[in-house]
User: Fold these one by one.
Assistant:
Number 1:
Amino acid sequence: MRFSTAFIPDIHFGAGAVGEVAMLARALGPVECALLVLDGFLAQGGLAEALVADLSSVGIRSRIFSEFSGEPKLSHLRAAVAAAEGCQLVIGIGGGSALDIAKITACCAASGKDPLHYALAANPLPKNPLRKILVPTTAGTGSETSATTIFTGETGKKLWIWGPETKADQVILDPQLTVTLPPSLTAWCGMDAFIHAFEAATNRNAHAGAALYAHQAMRLIIDGLPVAVADPGNLPAREKLLLGSCYAGIAIDNCGTAIAHNMSHALAGLAPVHHGLATALAFEATLPWLVQTETPDLQAAARACGLEQIQDLPAFISDLMDRCGIRRALPAAFAAFTAADLAAEMKAPENQPMRRATIFEVTDADLDRFAESLMALPRTL
């Protein structure tokens, strides 16, 4: 056995931990100005004002950037980079979009390069990015502990920037910040985190160093997700989800994802769709194919789910989605597209790393069949 593991940022966990932002910012070294990248509703809900005051109390001026919605777009990134001029620190607070914007901004503001300069690993990232503190308010992407960022380019296609330079210096996990997430978003984000863990533990790149995190992530999410969906204010359930999502982020940082994420990224290339929902639908569509052949890693993942046989996984996942109220449907905008359109996106160059990482060879015929299955869903969302 031979593997290496990527570094894990300092993680501060607990209810109320967001109150440590200013202290951690001051401890990072000379910082005169910080850019706060926050989801819009957080910026309007009083959290931004409290953080600005806390930072000011330790001698750090701050600016707020919240002019974005949905998944990160190139225009959002360029505006954030401009807002970061003269800053030494970027603090990302929110869902995966806010965190990814913060991570890319920290790199581009330091180098003066456009985000497209780094897209799809076209050029090395700067070795001296701005410092970063990341505070997730959803439990899904795991972006706070991964070296990957996702954004939408000028043509509407999903692009990625990867490198350890994007990773946080400090991570704060405060489950109190997640209790207001609505049940549907809780379910979608939680399934995304679960699939991160499952795919990282079972793909071609899987190794024991990451399985430690991936298997525990699956256990935590299985325990916490149905409870958090049914009772959004249940703090112990939120704690399990947030920690599980973080551990899943560590797992994909080391091993990446696989076919379900190839498919969900392809869906987003056609029309707007929540990433967690797209990934859950893709996972359910591809899992029966994946478990046709046993591997030790698939067996271990099944055991982490409390199952004896990998053949029980599809029914287990479908039941979990049912208990979380996930509707099997696509947004109405997908009515304009066919299975052939989706299959073409799945074969696009930017989605091939996830296809190649899948433990079994994924043929073009497999992609066509998966696309047919997913595009047969109703367009009612």
Number 2:
Amino acid sequence: MIRFHLMFALPCLFVIARFLWPLPWSVRSRLAAAVVLLLASQYHLYSRLSSGSVFSPEFPKAIVIAFNWAFSAILLLALLQLAIDLLLLVASLVRWRRLAISPRLRYGLAAAAMVLAAIGVHQAVRVPPLKEVEIHIAKLPAQFDGYQIVQLTDMHISRLFDAPWTRAVVADANGLDANLIVVTGDMIDGAIRDRAGDVAPLRGLHAKDGVYVIPGNHEYFFGHDAWMQYFTDLGMTALDNSHVVIERGGAQLVLAGVTDVTAPNTGLPAPDVAQALKGAPTNTAVVLLDHQPRNARHAAALGADVQLSGHTHGGLIAGLDRLFALANGGFVSGLYEVDGMQLYVNNGTALWPGLALRLGRPSELTRITLRKAN
């Protein structure tokens, strides 16, 4: 945990060393500014002190937003400063003399970071817009051509994504009148005693063929068994290494779901696609729900035709999303063809309240239409 907090302090320390200290201010002013930056950078420590977990900040929503803006501004300033440093290094080598950054440019970087942080946090906390996706499947029965699935994922219901936000998402999802609603993990951040009121609107989710849920890694942080039972009590059907068969006009579609790859860390069953598909009808299309996309090739080898995932939040910032891809099997956002299987990695309905920032990777309320491939 100490390493976690040190990692999140690194951007601040870089900003102090490379941005703040070279400014033509008095030592006292620079020290005061450094203290303010350090205090702002420790938002995740305050979250842990407030609830016992860095994943569940128990502050009023306005304070959570303010901390996210401050931390995001520090992070973006560090990235901008690093980019300028690299450009300056190249220019210095080309001209063969040392070049310096003017104070005016530094102030411009700070202003840009603060504005971009405000835009990014606003993009992150809004109720997501609709995104339409078509997925073509060779084995899809003709009766399921045009079948619509609403995918919700990474809702991270919390003090940031609270009851009013959840009610708005439920209303929008129900308004799409889809055949099926699936929730692919990371629904919450916090214990049931803290989140019950914010989660309650999910009871209103409904679709013709039901609402299905699988766990994400965050469910295991706050008591997987208790939360999955709670979601069941709200009217959802949990798929933990299991499947259901959906019938339409005499044809069948298999919907399967697996646990999260982090499950063994808490002594619970690992994701098992073979177990999830055990006893499922053969020669029909299989839609698999797996919170994390990293094992997509394994799912394809075991017969899944479509995998719906989340977890990556789309990479948060366009251009830096490749860093997220490295940790997720090369998958970060959008539709991929994986060994004959279609993988859709959702940017997320929301995201972790510990880093609520989106620039070029918007949240989404996703309606997926299945089409029979020619």
